[in-house]
Amino acid sequence: MRTLEKSDVCDPRVEYVKTPRTGDELLRLDLNENVLGCSPKVIEALKQVKPTDVSVYPDTSVFRTELAQFLGVEDGNILMTNGADEAIRYIMDQFLKPGDEVVMAEPTFSMYPVFCSQLKVEIRSVNYNDDLSFPTEALIGAITPRTKMIVLVSPNNPTGTSIELPDLRRICEATDAKVLLDEAYFEFGEIDAMDVLADYRNLVLVRTFSKVYGLAGLRLGYMIADRSIISSIEQVSAPYNVNNLAVIAARAALSDQKFTTDYVQMIQQNRDYLAEKLPVKTYPSQANFLVADMGEYRVEIWNGLRERGILVRDLASFKLLGNCIRIGVGTKEMCDTVVGAIEQITGGCQ
Ligand SMILES: *Cc1c(COP(=O)(O)O)cnc(C)c1O
Asked: Do 208 and 263 fall within a single domain?
């Protein structure tokens, strides 16, 4: 195991921890990536890349049609972006101006407060319930006439909990504001907001190829919404924001649904396994990670795991999660490694 340099010590408040990735020695369970990499079909497709795939400006139209067919919508309902992060930024840029109000439930994905502060929009936040279930009543109660957008993340990062479709419907019906629903992890859960999308002209879904498909390094996300929303965002989006290699990889990834369904099944099984094996309280999760309450041992466990080359996310800076860490669910072997290390660390402190 390589020794950690002082410069590696990360600020646990930052979502995208910039720990140098110098090899396979570190077990990274901190960024919710695909622990098996990606479908072998993706690598095969990338090996076939031709010079013109690199030399010409990207064209996403063919893949857009394929993705639309896969999702059962029209081409005009989709816009592809450079990662889901860019989709979020486009949506916020287009529909918010300084002084507007955005309603969200906290804790949530740390890029939302970052984007809001960049755009000088005001956040009206309500807290998740103590059991980390979604606070539907409180959120609806927080909407005012100045609210221009509601931000929802389901399954939520970092809580892992989902919003039920009847609650999503109530929120969409409670406001004319845009409802941005971030579904970066929906494949790992049981709820698919596509089932209600056609009923709401104010709802925008944001999705990504980074998590279940394992293409985080290539940056491909997309949004799905009513045509009017997509065309208004198209007017402000960069024409060549998505690159050819990402499209080649995503087409291959989408063609290998067996890899995806097997991966989801493995994560769901190991999520239960990890929750059962961990010697601490965990919360129910619909994502590819678990929130574990480490009580007074949080710092010791986080550091102890780090010393053993296992990275997990410290959630101390998040509301309601002061004693918690977020652990990515991996293979059974990875789960055993992290559980064994935690037992060793806590055994050592008792
Ligand atoms: C990882 C993540 C994203 C970003 O996905 P990219 O496509 O890699 O930009 C967006 N939202 C949530 C909630 C995430 O956890």
From this structure: no
Nearest CA to ligand 1 atom 1: 184
Report the b/e string of 224-258 with b at 16+ CB within 10 A: bbbeebbeebeeebeeebbbbbbbbbbbbbbebee
Residue nearest to atom 12 of ligand 1 (CA): 184
Q: Tell me the C-alpha distance between 32 and 15, whole Å.
A: 11
**Residue 13 within any structural domain of the chain:** no
Two tokens, residue 25:
């020695």
**pLDDT band at residue 348 under the 50/70/90 scheme:** low
Residue 156 shares a structural domain with residue 176? yes
Give nearest CA residue, ligand 1 atom 14. Answer: 184
**What is the distance in A from the centroid of ligand 1 to the CA of 51?**
30
In angstroms, what is the span from residue 344 Cα to ligand 1's centroid? 33
Same domain, yes or no: 128 and 146: yes
Flag whether pLDDT at 19 surpasses 70. Answer: no
Q: Which domain holds residue 340?
A: 27-36+258-349
Pocket residues for ligand 1 (CB within 6 Å)?
32, 83-85, 109, 153, 157, 182, 184, 208, 210, 216, 221
Last residue of a domain, one of 255, 281, 312: 255
Last residue of a domain, one of 204, 234, 255: 255
Return the residue whose CA atom lies nearest to atom 11 of ligand 1: 184
Give the model confidence (pLDDT) of 146-169 as tens digits. Answer: 999 999 999 999 999 999 999 999
**How far out from the chain centre does Cα 208 lie?**
8
- pLDDT tens digits for range 54-73: 999 999 999 999 999 999 99
Amino acid found at 299: V
pLDDT in tens, 68-113: 999 999 999 999 999 999 999 999 999 999 999 999 999 999 999 9
Whole-prediction pTM: 0.93
CA of 237 to the centre of ligand 1 (A): 19
Looking at the structure, tell me whether residues 115 and 163 fall in a common domain.
yes
Q: Within a domain: residue 279?
A: yes
Parallel, antiparallel or unpaired: strands 101-106 and 147-153: parallel
